[in-house]
Each structure stands twice: as structure tokens, then as C-alpha cells.
Amino acid sequence: MTDDPAMWLAVQSIRCLWTKAGRDAEQGRLRNQAPMRLPLAGLEAQLLQPPVAGGVLWQEISLRSDGGAFENQPVAPVAWKSWNAQQLREQGYEWHEHRGGMAIGWWHGDAVRHTGQPQPLGLRPGQWLRVVTHRRANGWDHWAWERRVTNLMCVDRTHALDVFASTPPVRVLDEEPHLY
């Protein structure tokens, strides 16, 4: 990374968590209508600030089990957090600049299970991709299921950010759910 990175990785992560009580058909229908992407509010202003360490800007959005926003949280929070490579790796991703774009490694899915290497994903400035993962977690007295939609976008100071809202992703990876 340089002191003034030419590119940043902007990551919008939308997380929907539900328990057994929210597994009925109506809740599932509402959950499936939850947004897969939200406006990139505040990102443009963030890019005008001094460069972030690691070149990663992360936005975390949590939704209720029916796909709606929590009462104390707006649907599209403005806060973008600067992340370093280790924080990104903890979420299963890595990135570096690569020939006019960026190389992204995804440490989930079948590629890792078979090769031990991350699945390579590439982006150029103004492009974005979506990764959908499904997880199950258990506590002492409950089960919880999670669907996380992670939108990754290669941004620089020359491309308009409306490409995110006006174009489809260049690639969609929908990890097969293992919820049982």
C-alpha cells in the first residue's frame, strides 16, 4: 500500500440474523425481500479524507429477522470504518492492487476446501461483486441463522459511485446454505 492509494476496497456488509421463531413462511418471505444493497451514503466524503490504512472501507448493516431495519438504526448508516488487512482477513477476504484493478481472495466456499487457497476474484475501478453466505450458530438454548450479503466495490477518485446503484454486480457468488 502507498500513502495515497489509487484504489480502495469499499465493502458493504448486510447481515440478517434470525432464530427458530422467525423461520415461518411469512418471516422468510419478508426476509427474502430485504435489500441486497443500500445507497453508499457517506462513502464519497470518506474518499476525500486522508487515505485509510490498508485501503479498506467497511460498512456494517444489521437487519431484523424480517429484513427491516432496527428501530435505533437507520436503514443505511453513514459510518464507514477504516479496516486493515487483518480485520478484512477475519471476515474471509484479502486484497491487493493488481494490473489496473484489484485482486481479491475469498477464503470461503469450495475453492478453499479443495485447494487450501482463496478463491480469486478480480475487480477494476467502478466494478463491484456480491458474495452471499449462509451460516448457522448455536447457543446454550437456541439456534440462530445468518444470511450475510457482502458487496465489494473497487473505488477510486475518478469513477462515480452511482455505478453501484445503476449497474448489476460483475459477479455473484451465492454460497450454498448449510443450515441443518
Low-confidence stretches: none
| DSSP helical segment count | 5
Q: What kind of oligomer do you see?
A: single chain
| Secondary-structure-derived class | alpha+beta
The fraction of residues in strands falls at 35-45%
The coarse overall form would be globular
Distance between the termini: 41 Å
Give the strand tally: 9
Strand order of the largest sheet: 3-2-1-8-7-9
Which key features would you list for this structure?
single chain, 180 residues, alpha+beta, six-stranded mixed β-sheet, three-stranded antiparallel β-sheet, 9 strands, globular
Tell me the layout of helices and strands.
Layout: E1 8-19, H1 25-32, H2 43-47, E2 56-63, E3 81-83, H3 85-90, E4 93-98, E5 101-106, H4 109-115, E6 119-123, E7 128-138, E8 143-155, H5 163-166, E9 171-174
Parallel strand pairs: 1-2, 7-9
Antiparallel strand pairs: 1-8, 2-3, 4-5, 5-6, 7-8
